[in-house]
Amino acid sequence: MHLNRHTVQVLEHFRNDPAIKTVPAGVTLFKAGDPADFVYILIDGQANLLVGKTVVEVAVRGNLLGEVGLIDGKPRSATVMTRTQCQVLPIDAAQFQALMRDMPVFSDYVMNAMAE
Hints:
Largest sheet: 4 strands, antiparallel
Strand content: 25-35%
Order of helices and strands: HEEEEEEHEEHH
Strand order of the largest sheet: 1-8-3-6
Low-confidence stretches: none
Mean pLDDT: 92
Radius of gyration: 13 Å
């Protein structure tokens, strides 16, 4: 994913958010089958998206992780494991809905993430 203007604006908006967590390499953020209760903005680092044991994508800075499950209400369809040390911003379902409603650039960011 390249950093389009929506992604850059979202990263800039959240860059000093106190909820950003630093996660070491090799940590599972969520597993396939888990309930979808959070999305994560990958502020920095890389993470593997796995279906079974196969890496189907390497997420990079600016990627949104876990949005599909939060939108469709179904369990996670993939596992996400940090590939490098990462900084992630967890966003719960209520906060996600508020951001979608109140921050048009966030809505555009989510739509672009889903389209990719």
